[in-house]
Amino acid sequence: MSEDGSIFARSKAAFDLPDGLVYLAGSRFGLMPRSAKERLCRLMMPGGAADLGSERFTADWEDLPGRIGDKIAPLIGVRQGEVTLGETLQLQLFQAISAAVSLYTGPKRTVVLTDTSNSASDLAVMEGIARALGCRLRVIDPTRICYCLCDDVAVLAMSAVNVQTAERRDIATLTRLTHEAGALTVWDLSHAVGALEIDLAGACADFAVGRTEQYLNGGPGAPAFLWASNRFIDRVTPALQGQKADRPSSPDQTAADPHPPRKIDRLRLGTPSLIALTALDAALDLWAGLDLTAISQRAGALGQAFLAEVDAHCPGLTLISPRIAAARGAELIYHHPKAAHLTQSLQAQGVIADCPAPDRLRIGFAPLYNDFSDIDPAVRALEQALATL
Amino acid sequence: MSEDGSIFARSKAAFDLPDGLVYLAGSRFGLMPRSAKERLCRLMMPGGAADLGSERFTADWEDLPGRIGDKIAPLIGVRQGEVTLGETLQLQLFQAISAAVSLYTGPKRTVVLTDTSNSASDLAVMEGIARALGCRLRVIDPTRICYCLCDDVAVLAMSAVNVQTAERRDIATLTRLTHEAGALTVWDLSHAVGALEIDLAGACADFAVGRTEQYLNGGPGAPAFLWASNRFIDRVTPALQGQKADRPSSPDQTAADPHPPRKIDRLRLGTPSLIALTALDAALDLWAGLDLTAISQRAGALGQAFLAEVDAHCPGLTLISPRIAAARGAELIYHHPKAAHLTQSLQAQGVIADCPAPDRLRIGFAPLYNDFSDIDPAVRALEQALATL
């Protein structure tokens, strides 16, 4: 076994996959590693933090979003202390977009630009955010971004992976174009973090948000993260300034604060559930020492192996995603008029895929727990599903 | 043992209190019952929802905030389907205040009125909310509310229990005065729900929010709830309209939706952590069949018993809270110049109280797990703490 192979064998062993089950869902839900589940159960032991810790663990808990942020920072190419956690993705988007809008002091820019590849519900959320900020949401074709960066655009808010096609966006290029147009970027890394190499600092990006429930394995509804560039963290005014905005020292504090506030805390609004944070904190320990280049290459290689097998054995499926791994996220999306039935049939055969629309089959490759041994049974099951339609 | 006594003996037995420990912290953190911790651990079992449920449990999970809301509804005197869960208290306050402000169609009212008894961090949050809505926050002395309900006031946002004094507010009277002044109310029930009788519908209240981590035992950072009166749930426009605002039917849905959207979902923004929701859901099962009048009377009676003992044995402590149980929340707050040291000394003796300010000692009585047997050891420990200052 190659060195990479043995690293990934170890990471796969960290998950409780039942024998014979192949989990290839490309939806926003990844699996939780055993260590996260065990950590939660320990927290729930009699006498644990959930019992009487309150008065003892409060300071530690309040600092947990920052400490978890420090574990996410290297996965997105930013520095320690620049990432925080909290709430749902929707709120983090609100904080990021409002903070970006707050930076304009010159001629008024009032457009939040995004693209049609977002789901209807994501567009509804962004519509609400734009309205709350006194801005307008402009929804454009994703291929026409460079034509639409007009001088009324305040923010380009985009997913790093097109959720309709799994096409990967070039964060560095789009950020540069956006800056040349005088606007700022808010990247949604939900479908990218933990599967692709991301270098926000290298791309000179401005803001980023992301869910942590897919490739970061934090569990369903795990807290979302928020990053703001240190180029302007001192100057932004998010719409909602929480209790962290200007945290005073505790009045009875005699020693130095063991958890000095971080600048990114200015964008924090409260402290999420200790339980949810603890699970995510434990799940992120899996990433210590892993090489992001190898992770990203593995996601791509798994996809290439799968699509070659599907090409050979599953006529009738039309690939919507790019055929080139480097142009894709970690998912493959196929068109088939009966994709919903295929998904159910796969599930009955122990292969979990997902169906983002009735005619779309999505297969996701999580580098930490999928490996090449998943390909053959999944493609056999797909062949079988197609044969029995 | 009286019938009430045996009911409360059962509820106390639902918690994992170590022998000899007396938990009387009046902070926002209550204990989690064993059943909630066990439910979480079951969720974490191999093959449980955290593993592969994603595709199977999604619809159920998305409906969980509403189902939990239905368990909270009877505790605050409102109907099924009117309460939802999500995020932190701060976001729920934002949704409630912005929804209230959205109802004004006549002359512009731009003041959010609150009082000086809120903590500095709560005031900072409300300041941020008011600013985000283009309103101003006006912070007044709590005794002067009826003088300050001017015709520029849009919303009176108050805690149902004064956190500085534990004085209980008269929700019905203040709501009536506010309505007569042409404004709306947003009640923060964090320190009241689960300890006091609350009848929002009877009080003709408008909006309410609350944490669920104190007397509802949802665990640290448990999701906060939000209620809006059905008098105007169809008309409000919260600042942040989430994916739930106008949820379309699933395109491949052939049967009837098992979880039809609730009107209160219009104020929801995303779905909180499954893990955090599950713990709270289990914790709320303790309330089935409990009588809120008995709960409230018990909190009051525990307080009266404690303060009589302190009067007799602990000179030097000055009661800040009202002496009449019916005028109080479930806490007693004392002034003592060395309250922080007293709190530490109590803790060393196995009595957990809390210290909201260096010269304030706060004792909270959770009807579900505190009983009269806690009074004597707590007062003895306090005597001892005072004697050794």
UniProtKB/TrEMBL annotation, chains A, B:
Residues 240-265 are annotated as: Disordered. Pfam families: KYNU_C. Keywords: Hydrolase, Pyridine nucleotide biosynthesis, Pyridoxal phosphate. GO terms for cellular component: cytoplasm. It comes from Paracoccus aminophilus JCM 7686. This is Kynureninase. It is an enzyme of class 3 (hydrolase). GO terms for molecular function: kynureninase activity; pyridoxal phosphate binding. One of its GO terms (biological process) is L-tryptophan catabolic process to kynurenine. It comes from the Bacteria. Its EC number is 3.7.1.3. InterPro entries: Kynureninase (IPR010111), PyrdxlP-dep_Trfase (IPR015424), PyrdxlP-dep_Trfase_major (IPR015421), PyrdxlP-dep_Trfase_small (IPR015422).
